[in-house]
Amino acid sequence: MPISPRRIMGALPQQRWLLPPIDPESCDALRQALGCPASLAEIYLRRGLTTPTAVRAFLEPETLELPPPNTVFPDLDLAVELLQRAIARGDKMTICGDYDADGMTSTALLLRALRHLGADIDYEIPSRMQEGYGINERIVQDCYERGVKLILTVDNGIAAHQPILKARELGLTVIVTDHHDVPEQLPPAHAILNPKLVPPASPYHTLAGVGMAYTLALSLAQRLGNWRELVRPLRELCTLGTIADLAPLTGVNRRWVKQGLQTIPTSSLVGVQALMRVAGCLPAQDAALKPTVVGFRLGPRINAIGRIGDPQVVIDLLTTEDPQRALELATLCEATNHRRQELCAEIERQAIAHLEETGFDPQQEWVLVIVQPDWHHGVIGIVASRLVERYGVPVFIGTYEDETTIRGSIRSIPEFHVFEALEATKDLLLKYGGHRAAGGFSLRAEHLATWRDRLRAFAQTCLKPEDLRPLVTLDAEVSFEQLTWDFYAQVEQLQPFGSENPQPIFCSRGVKILEQAPMGQQREHLQLTLEQNGRQMTAKAWRWGQFFPLPTTVDIAYHLTAHTWNGETQLELELKGVKLSLAWYVPNPPSHPLPHWQPLPPLTTLLPQLRDNVLLYGYGRPEVPPNLTTAAIHYDRPRDRCRTLILWSLPPSATHLRWLLAIAQPEMVYVGCQRPAIAPLTTLILSIQNDLKEQTTVNLLALSQTYWIAPCTLVAILRHLGYGCEGFAPTLSITAELTRLQRWYQLQAKDLARLAQRWGTS
Questions:
Q1: 91 has which bridge partners?
Q2: Are 645 and 668 in contact (CB under 8 A)?
Q3: Hey, which residues does 526 pair with through a beta bridge?
Q4: What is the DSSP annotation of 70-107?
Q5: Is residue 6 very low, low, confident or very high in pLDDT (cuts 50, 70, 90)?
Q6: Are 599 and 749 contacting, i.e. CB atoms less than 8 angstroms apart?
Q7: What is the signed CA dihedral for 543, 544, 548, 552, rounded to 10 degrees?
């Protein structure tokens, strides 16, 4: 049954799909060397694993040879010495942590370790609502007045120049452990440990804040000869924080997380056991925990406390030895997470309503800056992530601290560097911090409009119009018949999945939707039955209720998952993207005689000399007055043979030209030098995308003629939009294809004569 344009317009998410190119010969060689399916070899190559040795090292991270940490971090030995000396003297120490999962697990990790090693230590975490991120002068002054001699920051401090300067002036020792991007001026701490200060090729470069804290804690414990009992519990805390912070699961992170996931199910930490119990994710005995359980079940319950509760709850949970107390605290985490979910849903609803009411257009604005009063600052970062997923642009979301000050969070797309944007606009900010993908800020309300304009200008320097839609990066194209348990097991060897090692996204084309129905309390999700070549699969699409009903034949992008229900486990698809499944073709022109070619003289000179049928073709070609010639003038599409073909401008491609010659069969072709006015790239992409919503089969020649672009340029745009265009030759980038098109339009009569000669001999 044909699908109406109205239904399609509301039924599909506006996404860009990317299947990064790989070398087919390299893929085949890797497939043969490993004895794996071609699609799996494609995944390895697209993750930079180009040799069997690299693949095996990735799949078995425990074989990774790690350099000693003190040879990587220049200040590590000094930091250990300062802590050892403070413990020996009985000096009071304070950990300055943070209120997100990374900061709270880091704080708990060092608190457990240093207390185990005999330190007199407590901790401080700034108020999310009143103070914001990181160590501040109030904390420093408070520590000084309480007789603290050493401050140890975790997951913050690298940009806190003034508070650390104040601490030094008061005679305090300061050790900074952080993992955020490094500013131009380092703070005046006694020792600084930050993986961003080590070479990017180092396996330690991607450590989260908790990974840096783990490195320091173990180094100190080894120096004191009291480390064996600490390794396992500290590694489990490191695993929780690393996954919850979305740190890259590569290098040493991958090794430590894989080890931590093996032991967490039988953890000796009563707080971790209680948290798994209330979250309903206690695994079977001797079974490893999956990172998705940490990322989607445990992490949010920890983060919820930091966002809208008291971080002390989590730190007590992760350091207590009392099972009953742990269960009480875990139950509080559970209740707080429910409240956090409600707040997120309401703020997201309000934000979308505001943006629709104001007509927000990502292609015009480049960035999304939205500020509203009375939003809870603790959860707007989560809403920012959802708005990025929905609109595909960097999102700056804020709320008012008071009548004059705005504080907010940032989430970004891959092509936009948050910290560089903040650095470029820092003269308007009161405070800021972050890294490539996310950050935080505060500014005076009076500067908001100027800041929005500056951010938009910055975005235009690093983004292209085609970047401004949600990106789905595909790992491999497969058919349903390939989705076996054996294939799933091989994909699972890539675990743990996370940042920089995401769960693979597969693509299958020409999939029929047999059944689909909304599910969830608000009908916000979809459940589907899909079929391709006789094989059926079940699928779920989270938060896609707005797209119901989906078209009946589509290309899909998805995760392959295993779902257990009523004791039975089956393979299931988790949809990440959907596009109309379209058929493409290019009609081949018939053979044609070769004409003579001449440059086009003025029409007022040429036309009076012509007789019989004439085809006047091209972009912007004029209408010929009846008194100028006795010839019968045809425009664009001849009804009869035309002895003369006048090309006011060239057709969009050689194939178009061959069709004109085949239909008109001219004896003489006059070639003009006019060039078509091609629409701006953004307009071109959006117009073509809109055209496709009304079609299920596309003649590439006809559609490219509509926009005066070559079929290969059109295919580059279609591939950018996520369509397969199988069987069509490889294309360049869109901008490179447009450049090539401009060169085509510059061809002269003599160039076309040589080209036609090759057609006649091929």
A1: none
A2: yes
A3: 518, 541
A4: HHH-TTHHHHHHHHHHHHHHT-EEEEE--SSHHHHHHH
A5: very low
A6: yes
A7: -140
Please state, in angstroms and rounded to a whole number, the distance separating the CA atoms of residues 576 and 758.
47
Query: Is residue 208 within 8 Å of residue 247, measured between CB atoms?
Result: yes
| Beta-carbon contacts of residue 382 (< 8 Å; ≥ 6 apart) | 307, 340, 344
Please name the helix (run of DSSP H) or strand (run of DSSP E) that holds residue 621, with its range, or none.
none
User: Can you tell me the distance from the alpha carbon of 216 to that of 107, in angstroms, rounded to the nearest whole number?
Assistant: 12
Tell me the CB-side half-sphere exposure of residue 524, using CA atoms within 13 A: 7
Structure tokens at 96: 């300055």
At 694, give phi and psi (nearest 5°): -110, 10
**Which amino acid is present at 558?**
Y
Measured CA to CA, the distance from residue 684 to residue 278 in angstroms comes to: 52
Res 75: pLDDT: 96
The token duo for 266 is: 């039988």
DSSP 643: S
The DSSP call for residue 531 is: E
Looking at residue 289, its pLDDT comes to 67
Spatial separation of the C-alpha atoms in residues 628 and 269, rounded to whole Å: 95
| Alpha carbon distances (Å) from 506 to 102, 273, 447, 484 | 31, 34, 44, 14
pLDDT for 7 beyond 50 = no
| E-state strands within 331-387 | 368-371
Q: Give the list of residues 6+ apart from residue 549 with CB closer than 8 angstroms, or none.
A: 7, 11, 516
Residues 6+ apart with CB under 8 A from 327: 274, 277, 278
Q: What is the DSSP letter of 302?
A: H
pLDDT of 734 over the 50 cut: yes
Confidence at 3, pLDDT banded by 50, 70, 90: very low
CA atoms lying within 13 Å on the CB side of residue 671: 19
Using an 8 Å Cβ cutoff, are 326 and 274 in contact? yes
Q: How far apart are CA 19 and CA 42, in angstroms?
A: 10
Q: Roughly what angle, to the nearest 10 degrees, separates helices 700-707 and 654-664? A: 100
Percent of the chain past pLDDT 90, that is, above it, reads: 53
Which residues, including other chains, have CB under 8 Å from residue 417's CB and lie 6 or more apart?
436, 462
Buried b (16+ CB within 10 A) or exposed e, 360-375: bebeebbbbbbbeeeb
Question: Stretch 44-68: mean pLDDT, rounded?
Answer: 90
How far apart CA 396 and CA 398 sit, in angstroms, is 7
Q: Which of 500, 545, 540 lies closest to 518 in space, CA to CA?
A: 545
**Tokens describing residue 456:** 């938009």
Report d(CA 95, CA 319) in Å as an integer.
14
Q: Is 461 helix (H, G, I), strand (E, B) or coil?
A: helix
Residue 256 has what pLDDT? 93
Q: Are 246 and 288 in contact (CB under 8 A)?
A: no
CA-CA distance, 496 to 429, in Å (whole number)? Answer: 38
Q: Which amino acid is at 281?
A: C
Range with lowest mean pLDDT among 205-209, 298-302, 740-744, 746-750: 298-302
Residue 660: CB atoms within 10 Å: 22
CB 399, CB 377: distance < 8 Å: yes
Instruction: Please give the Cα distance from 255 to 247 (Å, whole number).
Output: 13
- φ/ψ of residue 295, rounded to 5: -70, -35
Tell me how many helices (H) and strands (E) the chain has.
29, 25
- Report the distance separating Cα 279 and Cα 262, nearest Å: 18
Residue 10 in this model has a pLDDT that exceeds 80: no
Rounded to whole angstroms, the Cα distance separating 337 from 106 reads 20
65-72: average pLDDT? 92
Provide DSSP, 345-384: HHHHHHHHHHHHHTT--HHHHSSEEEE-TT--TTTHHHHH
d(CA 113, CA 12): 51
